[in-house]
Amino acid sequence: MAEIEDRLSVLEAQVAALVERFAAEPPPADAPAEAAAVFWALDGLKRRLPADGSGAVLYTGTVHLDDQHYDWQYGRTVDDVLAGDWTELAGVLTALAHPVRLRLLREILTGRHGTGELAGTEGLGTTGQLHHHLRQLAAAGWLRSAGRGRYAVPAERVVPLLAILTAARR
């Protein structure tokens, strides 16, 4: 009898863990609209915030690109965001405000890392223009040199970049 109770206790713990896990996961893509309307990440954020605060902003993502995997989560309180000097962000954002630079970032994220590969891509301009854009992106922190004319988007910038692009689509 004790053996059955022990096995039952283990099964109950496993079921409880599964219920908790699935309650925290987003609904599947083919779920009905009612299930898709559940703000699972937002609900988790709200549970962690003080009731008298001004709120917070959170972005998170899990990305598989070019044989790389990136998991990222970042959040700040609204008070922190509003208190910062937004003008100091102009250079970082300006670096993204050019069609060739956005195209370069997409090409690099999807596997073209070398300047030779990139130079062969139609629409990116001359080699001099290409290097100018690569320098602008690197100076703003959107790219890093991976050695010998190769570039990569830093791991800590992949999800933020995709979040910005997602937000820009409205």
Could you characterize the architecture of this molecule?
The protein is of the alpha+beta class. It has two domains: 1-38; 82-168, Winged helix-like DNA-binding domain superfamily/Winged helix DNA-binding domain (Arc Repressor Mutant, subunit A), CATH 1.10.10. Helix content is 53%, strand content 16%. The chain contains nine helices and four strands, in the order H-H-H-E-E-H-H-H-H-H-E-E-H. The strands form two sheets. The protein has a two-stranded antiparallel sheet with strand order 1-2. The protein has a two-stranded antiparallel sheet with strand order 3-4. The longest helix is centred in the first third of the chain and has 23 residues, at 2-24. It is flat and about 75 Å long. The mean pLDDT is 86.
Outline the secondary-structure elements.
Blueprint lengths: L1 H23 L8 H4 L3 H9 L7 E10 L2 E10 H6 L6 H5 L4 H11 L5 H5 L7 H13 L4 E4 L2 E3 L2 H14 L2
Antiparallel strand pairs: 1-2, 3-4
Concise overview:
By secondary structure, the chain is α+β, with helices and mostly antiparallel strands. The chain has helices at 2-24, 33-36, 40-48, 78-83, 90-94, 99-109, 115-119, 127-139, 155-168, and strands spanning 56-65, 68-77, 144-147, 150-152. The strands form two sheets. A two-stranded antiparallel sheet has the order 1-2.
H/E series = HHHEEHHHHHEEH
What class would the helix/strand composition place it in?
Answer: alpha+beta
Q: Major beta sheet, specifics?
A: 2 strands, antiparallel
Under the CATH scheme, which class of the largest domain? Mainly Alpha
CATH topology (level 3) name of the largest domain: Arc Repressor Mutant, subunit A
Overall shape: flat
> How many β strands by DSSP?
4
How many domains? 2
Q: Helical percent range?
A: 40-55%
Kindly report the oligomeric state of this protein. single chain
* CATH level-two architecture of the largest domain: Orthogonal Bundle
Across the major sheet, the strand order is 1-2
Protein name: Helix-turn-helix domain-containing protein
InterPro entries: ArsR-like_HTH, WH-like_DNA-bd_sf, WH_DNA-bd_sf
